[in-house]
Known about the structure:
Helix content: 40-55%
Amino acid sequence: VKAWSPAQCRRANASRRACLIARFNFVYAKERLDAEICLKKFICDIEMVQRIIYVAALESFRAAKKAFWKIKITVKRTLAADYCGRPAALDVAVLNYIACHKDLFDFCCCVQEVVCCLNVNPKLPCPSDVDFNVINCFIRELCCLAFLMQTLIPALDIAFGIDGELFNRNMYYRSCDSDFTAPFVAYHIWPALMENGVVIVKGEVVTRK
Length: 209
């Protein structure tokens, strides 16, 4: 197991954090819109399309986090056999190892799990001929992003929103077609990125009376 100094760990963590936040913003600004274009070929309702994208983001993070914790347990058990340092240092070594060996993560399995969740979600009553695999590149990128965000200290995660919740200007932006006087969220377009309960990147919602 490679021994990292505390300063090395902090620098590596800060560098990975900055890159992952930038990727999250890029997915929101570019790849999310590309996914919307793909879905609009099958679904005319823009609200339904945006709901699908949002649920896909939530499910991607859920599936990636579940896969991460399974891998972390296995890697920690393997590294612990030859590790003589402090338990806290072992945890850091495990995270660094996983961050450097992304091939441990089965992206294809994770993507298919997300697609299956979209197919059975009762809030997404789409036509039977809609194949959510058309946005598998978008889902794959989110799964990869979510997985790597778990290697940070502290880990980054997204906020889970509920339709009808009170609009929080510290957590969300209103979409351009929102009713700017409405106090409640009609539906979510994009989740907020969180770190230890603090908003790092705001999400986007639609507010209506």
